[in-house]
Amino acid sequence: MLTVNRVERIQGRIQVPGDKSISHRAVMFASIAKGKSTIEGFLPGEDCLSTVACCRGLGIDIKQEGTFLEVQGKGQYGLQEPENLLDAGNSGTTMRLLSGILAGQSFLSVITGDGSLRKRPMARIANPLRQMGAKIDGRVGGKLAPLIIRGGNLEGIDYTLPVPSAQVKSAILLAGLYASGETIVREEFLSRDHTERMLQFFGGNLERRDGSVVLKKSELYGQSVKVPGDISSAAFFMAAAAAMPGGHLIIEDVGLNPTRTGIIDVLREMGAHIRIDNIYSSGGEDLGTVIVEGGKLKGITITKEIMPRLIDEVPVIAAISALAEGTMRITGAEELKVKESNRIAAMVTELKKLGIQAEELEDGMEITGTGRISGGVVESYGDHRIAMAMAVCGLFAQEPVQIQNSECIAVSFPGFEKTLKEITW
Ligand SMILES: O=C(O)C1=C[C@@H](OP(=O)(O)O)[C@@H](O)[C@H](O)C1
Ligand SMILES: C=C(OP(=O)(O)O)C(=O)O
Questions:
Q1: So where does phosphoenolpyruvate get bound (predicted)?
Q2: Is 314 in the pocket of ligand 1 (CB under 6 A)?
Q3: Is residue 211's pLDDT more than 90?
């Protein structure tokens, strides 16, 4: 159980661990690339370690020393039939992206995960991968994991995403590496495009045409990847510093891919002062220093257009909305219901336990800021983002906030508590 006490100051200069989305992709792409890859700044969180374990289960030699990885890629057709179940743990990204790769293999794989992942929707990837020619079965008519995949002989498809999801887009593109003809993915609002950028970086034949991604069957080649700091982890501290009058926080080497910076746009619209400095590029991704000055925030309305660029940051936005003036209305966020927990229900229930005025909407939530957060015991639902969002509430609460089942924070942010202590007084 993590206990977070009220603080008076948020100040400091920090770095956050490597980006989770990019760490997963780097390991997977390196595994199916020809030759050795190195990965620097890898996130040694539980989710990414699940990806490493699955790739090892497919016969890939991966050496890990903290945040440094060396992967001996065996080329597109070098993976071996796994002797046992592949376990994606709590990680939707592992299960969905890896399924795209497994759809290209003629051998049999069975991929499963923990209790939360086994409840999350998998038809969204199974359907397009079946259309490409893979055989995929699973519980409840092939909709839930464990998934049983026998792939091979794929054909490209032209697919418009029915749900805004970078994981679905990525699964199709990874299968597209093995498919004849062109694989085309279209989406209404651009979701995180790390797969597109990294496929190009590894030598994949990928083009972007009028809002769609077009991929032709291609071979990847080993590379050296430097993983940027995770803006989704930085978001907890950015939001806390923004809501604390007098707060001053500098976060270095943060990934600033424009498909991930919705949190900066939202905090600015809420009245926060955020500056970006020292921008540079590495491996097709932008990085930079984020400087946050704290002050008084106001509630705003968020709609579905920004959601793909903001999705994992909604819990912490909800948390600081309690401190903002007026009402925060978050809409177009249905996808939050199918994350590690139902993040709409979880946040509303737990915020109410701290005396915050919160209400569920069909596609989001509404929070009315009173500036007052009481203390108490709250639940994480085994969901890392809920646990960290509630920790942010604790920094502003009248009494300590105790977060039950907080170990799940290690899924995406090992060292969260240590960094939190370093910047708060
Ligand atoms: O592609 C990715 O790395 C991710 C995509 C998002 O999920 P969806 O694709 O389900 O929206 C996000 O919530 C998740 O944390 C990571
Ligand atoms: C939704 C998340 O991850 P995943 O889908 O990979 O489990 C997350 O990290 O907030």
A1: 20, 92, 120, 167, 343, 385
A2: no
A3: no
* Tokens 């500036």 -> residue: 371
Mean pLDDT to the nearest integer, 333-352: 98
Q: Look at domain 2-17+229-423 and name its CATH class.
A: alpha beta
Environment class of residue 160 by beta-carbon count within 10 Å: exposed (0-12), middle (13-18) or buried (19+)? Answer: exposed
Please report, for the chain, the start and end positions of each structural domain, with discontinuous segments joined by +: 2-17+229-423, 20-226
Q: Is the pLDDT of residue 215 over 90?
A: yes
Computed over every residue of the chain, the mean pLDDT equals 97
Query: Minimal CA–CA distance to 398: which of 324, 345, 325, 322?
Result: 322
Burial class (CB in 10 A: 0-12, 13-18, 19+), 114: middle
Does 312 qualify as catalytic in the annotation? yes
> E-assigned strands of 89-202?
108-112, 135-138, 144-150, 158-160, 182-186
C-alpha 120: how far from its chain's center? 15
Q: What is the identity of the amino acid at 354?
A: L
Confidence label for 138 from pLDDT (cuts 50, 70 and 90): very high
**Dihedral of the alpha carbons of 178, 79, 103, 341, in degrees to the nearest 10:** -130
Residue 290 has pLDDT above 90, yes or no: yes
94 CB within 6 A, ligand 1: no
Q: Are 131 and 157 in contact (CB under 8 A)?
A: yes
Q: Longest C-alpha distance within the chain, in Å? A: 61
Which residue's C-alpha comes closest to atom 1 of ligand 2?
339
CA dihedral (230, 232, 237, 240) in degrees, to 10, reads 170
Find out if CATH 1.10.10.10 is the number for domain 20-226: no
Which residues lie across from 277 on neighbouring strands? Answer: 289
